[in-house]
Amino acid sequence: MATRSTFLLLLLVGVSAIISWLHQVGAVSSNVAELQRQRWRGKLPEVAIPQTLAARLSPLSLTELQSLAAGLKKIDAASFAAHKFCGAAGLICSEDVSFPARAGSNFANPNAELGEIEEHVFFDKEELRESGEMILPDLSPCKYLVSFLPSELAQMMPPFSTANVSQILNLLNISSGSNLSRSMVSTLEMCEARGEEGEVHTCSTSVEGMVEFVVSRLGSDVDLFTDTSVVGSDQRVRVTKVSKRENMVGGKPPVTCHNFAFPYGVSYCHSIKGSEVFDLQLEVVQGNEKVRRNATAVCHYLSNGAGGNQAACHPVFGEMLLWTPKA
Ligand SMILES: *[C@@H]1O[C@H](CO)[C@@H](O)[C@H](O)[C@H]1NC(C)=O
Ligand SMILES: *[C@@H]1O[C@H](CO)[C@@H](O)[C@H](O)[C@H]1NC(C)=O
Ligand SMILES: *[C@@H]1O[C@H](CO)[C@@H](O)[C@H](O)[C@H]1NC(C)=O
Ligand SMILES: *[C@@H]1O[C@H](CO)[C@@H](O)[C@H](O)[C@H]1NC(C)=O
């Protein structure tokens, strides 16, 4: 009897040691977030997942993934438990949310109607000089951060297109005409827009898709930059130093990815020929104190339709990702 229980105990210890070793070597994943991390590492072994993105990996377990995939396969919106799906997968399906303007039109289209553009997101190229002044946008993180679906679920959703928006709304039980549905339509329209001259863009509904786009534009030897500092948010700042990153002149333009409004994670990534990246040192007056902060800005040069170019510069902040060829 004693030997038998000892044997069982040893077996148990052995099996759990093997499982833990498999986890360590990444051979199995315990949950979807780990699966998403593994796929990221497979394509970008040298790049750490930034905090803003790590927070948006899927909260699903592998078991939930399997049962949701099975439920989506025999697609029948009436019986699909949208509410449970949205909750478990970290999505936002409640109709009355109002995503900020920056989660949509304003980055994709700096020429949009003024009312649609969040204030101070774009600044003048003239302000990018020592002693120049600019007002920073609202740098606070987006209140509505939804998780990215794993690519296998993202691919099972109805096509990501304005032609199929009613299927998406039905599946997630969101009424058309609601605030959320309006944000969704506007996101889909921006994703389908032709884009600027020299612009290549894509909307990815998974982290895997985003990484694939970045690697297709820049290869896997990339630097990834994010900036979540809120110092100087909505405030006037003075520029004390500007340096242009030279490594991409004549090379591949940087890729910027923006978080767009949708019930599940959507990343609008684009690269515009001739874009430039600037590192800035800034000074913010807070009360009687001068606070210093660094920032990075991207300038896109867009055709103004009259043969000239118009610069559209914005700081990299919040959920935004800036990818550049490795320095
Ligand atoms: C829809 O959004 C507007 C503007 O953001 C807001 O004022 C309104 O309360 C929202 N509607 C609903 C039903 O929540
Ligand atoms: C997507 O929309 C097109 C055009 O309305 C339609 O023909 C197609 O069946 C839709 N696909 C799905 C999966 O709903
Ligand atoms: C859809 O949402 C409504 C409330 O907006 C709810 O009454 C209904 O039960 C939901 N249907 C499904 C299939 O979840
Ligand atoms: C800003 O960047 C410069 C140059 O890289 C560095 O020396 C400085 O410490 C940074 N300042 C802050 C406030 O991070």
TrEMBL record:
It holds the Pfam family BURP. It comes from the Eukaryota. Coiled coil: none annotated. The keyword Glycoprotein applies. Residues 122-327 form the BURP domain. InterPro entries: BURP_dom, PG-associated_BURP. Residues 1-17 form the signal peptide. This is BURP domain-containing protein. Keywords: Glycoprotein, Signal.
